[in-house]
Every structure is written in C-alpha cells, then in structure tokens.
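Problem statement: downstream parser choked on a complex file, so we are re-checking the raw output for the magnesium ion run. The parser issue turned out to be on our end (a line-ending mismatch), but while we're here, posting the original submission so the record is complete.
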Amino acid sequence: MRTAEIKRRFLAHFEANGHTVVPSAALPAIDDPNLLFVNAGMVQFVPYFLGQRTPPYRRAVSVQKCLRTPDIDEVGKTSRHGTFFQMNGNFSFGDYFKEGAIALAWELSTKPAAEGGFGLDPERIWATVYLDDDEAIDIWHKQVGLPMERIVRRGKADNYWSMGIPGPCGPCSELYLDRGPEYGPDGGPDVDEDRYLEFWNLVFMQFERGPGTTKEDYPILGELPAKNIDTGMGLERVAALLQGVDNLYEIDEVRPILTRAAELTDKSYGARSGHAAAQSHPDDVRLRVVADHVRTALMMIGDGVTPANEGRGYVLRRIMRRAVRAMRLLGWQEGPVLPQLLPVARDAMAPSYPELATEFGRISQYAYGEEEAFLTTLKQGTTILDTAVAQTKAAGSTTLTGDQAFLLHDTYGFPIDLTLEIAAEQGLSVDETGFRQLMAQQRARAKADAQARKTGHADLSSYRSALEAGGPVEFTGYAEAARESRVRALLAGDGSTLSVAGEGDEVELVLDATPFYAEGGGQQPDWGVVTVGGGQVEVHDVQQPLPGLVVHRGRVVRGEVRAGETGYAEIDVYRRRAISRSHTATHLVHQTMRSFLGESATQAGSLNAPGRLRFDFNTPSAVPPSVLHDVEQQVNEVLLGDLEVRAFVTSLAEARRLGAVALFGEKYGDQVRVVEVGDYARELCGGTHVARSGQLGLVKILHEASIGAGVRRVEALVGMDAFGFLAREHLLVARLAELYRVPAEQVADRVEQTVAQLRDAERELEKLRAQLVLAGAGSLADSARDVAGVALVATEAPEGAGGNDVRTLAQEIRGKVPASRPAVVAVAARSGGKASLVVAVNGAARERGLDAAALVKGALSGRGGGNADLAQGGGVPAAEAPTLLAAVERLVASA
Ligand code: ATP
Ligand code: MG
C-alpha cells in the first residue's frame, strides 16, 4: 500500500467518524517561541488543549509534517526514526475519550485492506499502557479482546505525557507490531523496540499538572474538566509495515533517493546487512542518512526555511551538510551531488505535496547554492583540520584543542559538529568545553560592543533608575512634531546624573514624553532641539538603551539646562519627513520584491535614512537587472496611485489574518502596530511613515549586491535625492553626447567604438616599441667588451620598454654574438621608479661556469629567479640600474 493511500485511508476513516479534516501546519513553529519546528500533530491545537481558545470542532484529524532534530543521531541506525516525518493524528476536544480513541485506532489498524483498513494482523499487535491505567487495560483486554500477555505496563518515561510545563497531562497507550524473530528477540517492546515497532501513540489528556523540576517529577493537581484525546501515528512507520520493508528509509517516498545514492556511489544497498537495524552495515546506514536528509531538506526549504548560521536555518544547513558529507564518505568524489538527488526526492514527494514541484526552481536554487558554498568550506577547512589532526597525533595527544576547533569555526566557517565528526573518524576527541567557552567569550564581546554603541556607556544603572522614576517614555511623534515635557533625567556622557549642564556640555536627556523617534527597526533617529528654560540642547542622536526608555543625546548650545524643569522638544521636521519617505518606500520595495521573487524574499535588515534606503533580503542568487527594473517600475506606479498610508494597533492574531508581513525572528507582543499602504503592502512596523504614497515622489533603485550567503542588498534613493540623482545622470549623458557630437542614444555605441580603437592603437604601439628596442640589438652585440675572456654586453634598455621587451632584447643580443664566443648579456631597465635586471648567458659561457640566475642573484643580493641561461630580478630603486650592471661585470670578471 503506497504512503499516499495510507494517508488517504486515515483521513477517510476519521472523517467518516465525525472528524473535521484540518490541513498540516507548516514546519516552522511560528507561534511557539520554545519550538523551532512542529514536532507533533497536536502542536497546532495547543491553544485548544490549554483552554486559551475554543475549538471550532470537537473532533479533528490531520496529517502533520513534523521535524525532530533530536532524532538526527538515530537516523539510519534504527529502523524507525526520520528527521522529517508525517504524523497522522486524530483529536478529541472534550468529546470521546479512552474508549473511543482505542476503538477507532484498533478498527483502522486491523480492518482488512480490502475493506479500507490497514489489515494489520491482530495477533501481532501489542499495547503498552501507563503503570496504573487500569481503565485502559480493561478497554484493551475486555472490549478489544487483546490477551493480557500482549498488554505491557510501562513507567512515566515512556507512557506519560505532558508539555513539560504546568497544564494538561496524562497517561498514554501505544500500539506496537511484532515484526517477527528475524528482527530481534522475543519479549515485547520492553526487550526490543526494533522488532516490536511502535506505530501509534494514544495520549489521554486527563489531569492537570503543576510545576516540576524534571520531565518526570511534578505533582498532579487534579482531573481536567474536559478530557482530550491526542494521537500520533507515524505515517512512514505504518508504510514500512504495510510495504513489507525493513525500515522507513525503504518506503516508496524515500527509497528512490536511497537507490539513486547507491547507484551514484556504486554500492549495493542491503547486501551486507541483516533485517534488524542492529545488523546494518555502515554504508547502508549512510545511504539511509542521505535519503532521509535530502528529503528533509526538500521539505524544509519547501516550507520557507533557508540556510543560515542560527535557528531553523542552521538546522537545515546541518542536515544538508550531513547529507553531502555522507555521500563523500560513501565515495562520491565528483562535484555537487544534490542536483542528482533532490529531483528524485521531489518526484517521490510531489504526489502528496504538489507545491514541491511548482516551487522546485526556488527550492533547488537554495539547496544547490548551499552545497556549492559548503564544498568550498569543506575544501579549505579539511586541509586545516587535517593539519590540526596530524599535529595533535604527533604531539601524542588524542584531543583537538578548543582553540583549534574555534579557529576552524571562526576563520574558516567550519561547523563544530563537522569538526567533531571528522575528528571522531580519526579517533580523536575535541575539547568541546574549551570551544564553547571561546564561543561564549566571543558572543559576550560582540554583545558588549553592541551595547556600548547603543548606550554610549556600559553602565545601565542610571538608565534603570530613569526608567523606574517615571515608567516608559511616551512616544508622541506619530501625531506631532513638538511638545512640552518635563526633563525627567539629565545625564553626562559617562552616565552619571547631573542636575545642571552648561553651554558646550554633551548631555543625555530623558523626557516624560517625546516626539523624537529613537533609532530602531532600521529607521534612523530624529534630530532637533530641546529648549529648557533659557537653555537649549541640539539633539543629534536618540536611542533606546532599555525597552521603553528614550534617551536624547546632544550638546548644550546655549544657556543652562536643569533637570526637573519643563522643556519644549521639537524635531527637525524636514529630516523626519525624508526618513518617513524612505521607510514607506522600504515597505513598498519589500512587498514588490516578494511579489516578484516569492514569499521567501523576506527582509533581513534595513536602513531608512533621509533620502535613501537600504534593504537586505533573503534570496539564493542575484536578482537579474530586468527584475530589478520591473520592481522599480512597479513601486513607482504605486506612488502614482497615491494610496493612503494607515497605521493601526491590533492583536497579533488579527494582523496575521490580514496577511501582515512579520519580520522573521522578531518578537512581537499581543498587540501589534500594522502599517498598510492602501491594499498593496501590509507590515508589522513601529516606524513613522508618510500619509499618502504620492508624497514619496520618486523611488530610484541604484543597485543590488550580495552581502553574505543567501542575503542580497538593494539600495535606493527616494524623493528629491532620487530626482537629483536622475538629473545628474541626465547632465552627464548630455555632456557626453555633446563631446561625441552624437544624439544621447548613440553615446554608448560611440564609447564602445572608441575603446576598441584605443585598444588597437595600443597594440600597434607596443609592436612598434618592441621593434625599436630590438632594432638596437645588432649594434649592441657588436659593442661587446671582453671581460676575462667573456663577451659582455651591459646596457640599459631604452625608456618605455616593458618586461617582455627587455627579456627579448637580452636574448636577441645574445643570439647576435657568435656561438663559439662565451657571452653574457645584462640589460637593466627602469620602470615605475624601480630598476630591474635581465641576464642572458650563452652556451659557451655556461660551459665556463657562468650562470644567469647566479649573476642576477649576485647583483640583487639574493633576489630574483630563473635558470642558467636566462634570469631576472628587480625591485630596487630606479637609480640603481647602473649599479646592477656594474655588479654583473664584477661577477663576470671574478668568475
Ligand atoms: P520513539 O520512542 O520510537 O522515538 P516517540 O515515543 O518519540 O517514538 P511519539 O512522540 O509518541 O513517538 O510520536 C507519535 C508517533 O510518531 C510514534 O508512534 C511514531 O509512529 C511516530 N514517530 C515519532 N518519532 C518519529 C520519527 N523520528 N520518525 C518517524 N516517525 C516517528
Ligand atoms: Mg522519539
């Protein structure tokens, strides 16, 4: 039975029994800050189980895409763990309980295949229950008819469920299938979890638990008012059972990848392994790792994860790297291997997930780009690591130092897990503690740097008391440009508190309320003036060193400023407007990029400064100029549409429902501010914006470039700056057209022609120069002087002779001296303020022991190179050219 059919039957069975079919959530677990990836079917229903929301149905069924990073080390070694897998689950919210859950699971598992069930042999099914769950035992034994020998009581670690925090909890009951003695010893799940394969877990949410110190140690507070059911059936595990294969890497959705990997590396999979997982040959384990990881990478990128150095992206990176490494260990030596494997994974999975086929262009771009980058890293890092390994062994040690691992990581981008793996293959361990300490130190340094930049001084205590003295500072700048407010605190540049500051002093001001926008969310701070009594402060920076605390930094330009007095704060409206234009433009560029490049082109950073913006976004490869041009055009059309820009505060859930774009990795509270430009762009944002898109005037995209793996940067000008740029370009073209005396459209052609002509002329010139230089060769040969029986020509090359010319000249002169006469030719040349020397020695002179390389080195105190008949060197000041020639003469004379 194919996997897709098992999935279909599962949904049909529960739908027929009153369950609402709910689609899978995407793999990234975006609503749970503690979870990177959805790891069970119940994750998307958590708010229902916790009673935070009322479910719109009492019974639900789903096939959930899951990812379990902790299982990564099991992959290939057991028969039942994938990193990616699909969990089929049925859920009851205060509806049926143990009896219903057990009966529904039993029915589907054992109903004959011809009647729409899975047709598992009831005689081979075992069930586990929690120690004291006699209720479940009764149902299994008395209602289902399972014999007591096949019902096993197990402890809290295996058969008790909670979310690790106070809330619902309860006993579980799991279904196992006995796959027979060729998979392991008798005795049930307690003895062998490979022979007895768990395929379905039924969780009975029955009690409420309190806080606890460990996973198993917490008090049970009492019964839940409404009891729930949460089950998980491993789709791949059932597929393995029904397809009669040993493990989940051999099912229809995975096996084609494995087969392809085996073909590519010339391995015959399974030839040297037994049925049981424990009898696997290492190559077979590697093939399974490849198959699993390639499929997982496909599913992750399909759901919008992109490779990165932390978080979800790092999990993806690690998985892809492991796949590539496993292929190398299997003997694959050619270049990139994912182009051979990923399409196979796509073909296996697309029947269930058609979007993988339609999105494959984007998915493969990321995957292939990542592999290319990794292969480069691998090449560099491996050389360094090999050296480190050799050194370690030579020193008689078995541990790579933390320093070495850190250097590999920090300088060569070599991931620590890879260092661990390669070291282990060499029988070495790694001082991981040392490594982690160095990492922590580095992080601390980076953090302190960032903090110091933000706060100006590392000591936050005066900021804390300023915050405590009056609570969060109210920001009023969305609506007004100036306001009166009390000076809550006055600080000196070093963070100490002041009561008064005088003219020329650099100060920091905290007001109770302010129209000044503090730098944040990529938006530059406001500038302006705060007048207090007779004093005035010019504000040139505004920061938020603590959440809710706005600090104005500036210089007292007039009079005295006192803490506690009421002041008048006024922003530079001209600057603010220019910044707001940039910020609105950034939203438009972001939205337009997404519509051209796909949802995954998400913002990775931005800068909104007066008149210009910078926008970083995730995308695997360069954006073609034509696309950039289209983006620019569309953005400007939106400006002409003069859409209304509106900001409002709403709940996070409502914002999501409206499709507002949230920035990846940002933390949002329950209430969020949404900024929308007409119906065109909608984004969570705390920044300031224009009132209508028409106020932007003009947006000009300047260029696009890479600023790191998978991250590109676009820069653009807005408003008058954009206009000024275009006007300048226009003037430039007009001037060129005038110089060339052609219409503007023909300037480019003319430049091209001119460049080509110039190149031809240069070539001609070079030829002539060489001829000129060589023309003198005959007379120079004739002028040879006899030095100790050797014909010596020592001369300076004509001015302007290039390196090649000089060499050719020396050889030409040598050729003009009769071969029977020993000859040494030394030509010195001056160019670029330096002198160089070429020496040519003929055969007769070489027989007398003269050596061109030795002569050059002799004249240049060891520098230079070549061989016995022709050598050269240089690099001394031009004025030394005659000295070089004299030195050669001396050497010849004394030879
Ligand atoms: P195991 O002990 O075998 O790791 P588990 O107790 O972690 O399983 P559950 O958390 O109960 O499993 O998940 C419910 C079901 O999901 C399991 O019965 C199994 O069929 C399936 N499952 C769990 N982990 C994986 C995995 N890594 N790969 C494939 N299927 C899995
Ligand atoms: Mg597990």
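For whoever reads this later: The first helix runs from residue 3 to 16.
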